[in-house]
UniProtKB/TrEMBL annotation:
The keyword Oxidoreductase applies. InterPro entries: IsoCit/isopropylmalate_DH_CS (IPR019818), IsoPropMal-DH-like_dom (IPR024084). Belongs to the isocitrate and isopropylmalate dehydrogenases family. Its EC number is 1.1.1.41. SMART domains: Iso_dh (SM01329). It is an enzyme of class 1 (oxidoreductase). Residues 4-331 form the Isopropylmalate dehydrogenase-like domain. One of its GO terms (biological process) is tricarboxylic acid cycle. Keywords: Oxidoreductase. One of its GO terms (molecular function) is isocitrate dehydrogenase (NAD+) activity. This is Isocitrate dehydrogenase. The keyword Nucleotide-binding does not apply.
Length: 335
């Protein structure tokens, strides 16, 4: 049975890392079909808008999309195309694994294998209630936390821990100071955690969590938290394992899911074949898990690890002399 996925090639290095990723997926002979859709600056040039209706319809129709980085112009319109996609499709769960890989520029050689699960649709990133006073002296932004949003993201974290055999969920908050918003999140998280007695649940204030991640990251398994804290923590975790070039992300909702490389468009190296495709390849592995192909996801991750271990055609950021496509071909030869 074939599966059609929406492909968004993105801006900057996006098309290069997407071509590399699809080369590997094709080598795996998974029966995937691709439907191209535009977003970002390339869509603005071709269609006059950043998120064309045809792209939204494609994602809605296929329910799964693989996305390269997008550039949002400075100025009016969307504050972020990614935020708009999450809002439009109610992609409430942002899932960011951080795993130690061999032969990377990492502060830790091994031992890190954790997942940050971030609430993706509310908190500090809502667009309503943001204003600046007429004299430019005061800015106000509303932070909104709901019981519904808190309950479903915490439940997602515990269900993921249960289904993948993980043993601990750390609830990260700032309820000691933000007693209403973070306090509600923590209250709901405790209620949900009580329904999963086989999984250890512990609580950590966000500033302590950041310190502990830097000092002893091996103590973490699954982290669940609110939007702003999760945004910061997930990038911190990427820094522990070699940077955003090895950081995939999944945005999961009830009716759709978008898988992406979380790094930027890197226009300074676009078109030069220097881009590391690992983040998007690892996002594709998350996509395969989502599609019910866990064995294929494992096969893809192992091929990436084996290629890093062999130092075969690595891109310059990983200390190699290969290019984007030669690195992908080396991975494809191992799947």
């Amino acid at each position: 049975m074939t599966q059609t996925i929406t492909i968004i090639r993105g801006d900057g290095i996006g098309p290069e890392i997407m071509d590399a990723t699809l080369h590997v997926l094709d080598a795996m002979q998974l029966g995937l079909q691709y439907e191209d859709a535009d977003a970002g600056l390339v869509a603005l040039e071709k269609h006059g808008e950043l998120l064309p209706a045809t792209t939204m319809a494609s994602i809605r129709r296929n329910a799964v999309a693989l996305k390269s980085p997008l550039a949002t112009p400075v100025g009016g319109g969307f504050s972020s195309i990614n935020v708009e996609l999450r809002r439009q499709f109610d992609l409430y769960a942002n899932v960011r694994p951080a795993i130690s890989f061999p032969n990377t520029k990492s502060r830790f050689d091994s031992g890190i294998d954790l997942i940050t699960i971030r609430e993706n649709t509310e908190g500090s990133y809502i667009s309503e209630g943001q204003e600046v006073s007429e004299d430019g002296g005061t800015a106000v932004s509303i932070t909104r936390i709901t019981r519904k949003g808190s309950e479903r993201i915490v439940r997602y974290a515990f269900e993921l821990a249960r289904s993948t055999g993980r043993k601990k969920v750390t609830i990260v908050h700032k309820a000691n100071i933000l007693k209403s918003t973070s306090g509600l999140f923590l209250k709901v998280a405790r209620e949900v955690a009580a329904e999963y007695p086989e999984i250890e649940a512990n609580e950590m204030i966000v500033d302590n969590a950041c310190m502990q991640l830097v000092m002893r990251p091996e103590q973490f398994d699954v982290i669940v938290t609110t939007n702003l804290f999760g945004d910061i923590i997930s990038d911190l975790c990427a820094g522990l394992v070699g940077g955003l070039g090895l950081a995939p992300g999944a945005n999961i909702g009830k009716d759709a899911a978008i898988f992406e490389a979380v790094h930027g468009t890197a226009p300074d190296i676009a078109g030069q074949g220097k881009a590391n495709p690992c983040a998007l390849l690892l996002a594709a592995a998350q996509m395969l898990d989502h599609l019910g192909k866990p064995d294929d996801a494992t096969r893809l991750r192992k091929a990436i690890v084996d290629t890093l271990q062999a130092r075969d055609n690595l891109t310059p950021d990983l200390g190699g002399s290969g290019n984007t496509l030669s690195f992908a071909k080396a991975i494809a030869s191992r799947v």
